[in-house]
Amino acid sequence: MSLNTQDFVAPAKAQVETAIRAATIASDTAARLFELNTKTARATFDELTSTVQALANVKDPSELRTFASKAMKPEFEKGQAYVREVYEQLASTQAELASLVETQVTEFNKQMVVTMDGLMKSAPPGSEVFVSAFKSAMTGANQAYEATVSSLREVGKSVSAATATSTSGKRKAA
User: pLDDT tens across 162-172, in order?
Assistant: First the structure.
């Protein structure tokens, strides 16, 4: 089997494009999280300023107790909303990166099959055992990869379900 330059350049180019895509996904997520944090910090500062001003206007202890109970409930809900937003952003990023990796693994497997078939055609007599063992190892690695990906997806679904249940339960309790 003769290999030309394109056989080496195409996979390298694909890897560079994939690395750029992964970096773009990570950068976009960082930008979204930075924006969320900036908005949250600004809103928190504005609310704190108005709360301090309102606190300064409290005249007696009973007003202070009422003021404190009213001030805490919205903050808890806002904290939950913030955590939920961060979780959703990170889950979305994880899903995009997992899809990217899955695509890469699939493409790698296709290239491996083509390469192995090409090597089989030009392999010397008696190397069938080695090639067969290599194909068997690749099949086993692919099955392990697929089992791992499936397990991670199930964990992700469980965490998402638990998060949804926990936040909806707290909203009802509040």
Answer: 766 766 655 45
